[in-house]
Amino acid sequence: MLNEKSLSVSQDCNECPIRHRAVCARCESDELERLEEIKYYRKFEAGQTVIWSGDRMEFVGSVVSGIATLTQTMEDGRTQMVGLLLPSDFVGRPGRPSAAYDVVATTDLVMCCFRKTPFEEMMVRTPHIAQRLLEMTLDELDAAREWMLVLGRKTAREKIASLLSIIARRDASINMRDVGDRLTFDLPLTREAMADYLGLTLETVSRQVSALRKEGVIELEGKRHVTIPDMGRLLEEAGDDADGGVFA
Amino acid sequence: MLNEKSLSVSQDCNECPIRHRAVCARCESDELERLEEIKYYRKFEAGQTVIWSGDRMEFVGSVVSGIATLTQTMEDGRTQMVGLLLPSDFVGRPGRPSAAYDVVATTDLVMCCFRKTPFEEMMVRTPHIAQRLLEMTLDELDAAREWMLVLGRKTAREKIASLLSIIARRDASINMRDVGDRLTFDLPLTREAMADYLGLTLETVSRQVSALRKEGVIELEGKRHVTIPDMGRLLEEAGDDADGGVFA
DNA sequence: CGGGGGGTTGATCTCCTTCAATCAACGTGG
DNA sequence: CCACGTTGATTGAAGGAGATCAACCCCCCG
Prior knowledge:
2 copies of one chain form a homodimer.
Chain A: H1 4-7, H2 29-38, E1 39-44, E2 49-51, E3 59-65, E4 68-73, E5 79-85, E6 90-91, E7 102-105, E8 109-115, H3 116-125, H4 127-153, H5 156-174, E9 183-186, H6 191-198, H7 202-214, E10 219-221, E11 225-228, H8 231-237
Antiparallel strand pairs in A: 1-8, 2-7, 3-6, 3-8, 4-5, 4-7, 9-11, 10-11
Helix pairs in contact in A: 3-4, 5-7, 5-8, 6-7
The first copy, chain A, binds a DNA duplex (30 and 30 nucleotides) through helix 7.
């Protein structure tokens, strides 16, 4: 609120930080021009709800910066996170009139929104968009299935290690760091959000994080800043094959 | 093996039982002709593995009849089912060289396979296929997210009730029965497979099924034939809103 | 008849939840 | 500047849901 200006985002797709990873990644410049006609930016503050489950969807769009969560809630209040939305991730389902999940900004968030109906019409005539959306959806499906293994079969300790390794890996890929190195990052989630992601209570999350710290698997500065001295060790704790991808 | 003939399937797409629900649902007749050139049928017996995770994928395809499962396995043997493949469901990911999951036939199975490379080439030039695949993938993603809630937050009893209601609902939709009625169906899964789907042990599955039977929520003939006298009651036990969709 | 696959049931154990107290950091208003 | 409430996190004690280990049943089939 104080520095409205620093949050402002260029309308020009060519300057967009997610230009080459979002739904629009494969669009040609003429296609981008048409997208620019139906797009607009929206900003949300940390903690704000972007969409309520069941609400009519006026738009679909991409996360430009910040982090949001996709969650489901039962009548008695139990909640399960079903998606973690990072920059370039897509929000909304073309063809569906109302939202199926709650979308909440966990940090300050900027979204690039497309008016829903024009976007749907454009998708039919622009294979580049549908192709990219298919690719992204298949990736999300893989991620969801990976999480099903975590939720269904891993212990609390393994769940925490899995979450940390996923965040570490994505952070390394965004910042172009070698995964072999000592990795360092800030946790974008509170203990409660971690619990909602992992199907645990926040107390169990806290205990397991402390345990991993005491045993030297991770190092902590404050509550949120994490260092991973040995990625292989963390992957072992996650129940994953520590050598996966490196020698295979 | 005994009656090879009864398993034989027509090559003609127009006679295909999944013609209007599979990836090919939106194809015009000229597109179907081109698909017929690259397609072939394969049969698998109950228990047979269709593809091993990590294997090179020679084909993608659709389940024509029978049921298959998609599972992930950890090194120590823990397994989690991540998908239940019913007639018309799609197997394989275009663009990916090797399989990410084990695919196992749980009943005798007939698949309509497309040679992978020609199919991928065709997808680029045939929006009808890509559009339908996107739609199906989005549906699968929704189903996966629904399961994440089940795996992460529901009790064993709720998990069983959820699984039963899902199977009942799909069975009703295939057989065009009203969900309000007394529903009856055969469980396509062993207790162990149910456990792998729900992130439980087979003993817990057995106990909870027995409990639901004793309390009259379900009725059993033998081990596999299930009757649901009151769908609303089952949905309550599943932790879902019993009125969902009916009055809403 | 023996054997194996699928299923049920019982006893015990354990990991995680639940309930609760405490703490540190932060902002706010008197 | 300090008292106060709030929010996020840690830690402890107790209890319970589901896992584990084990025995046994039923049915089909060679």
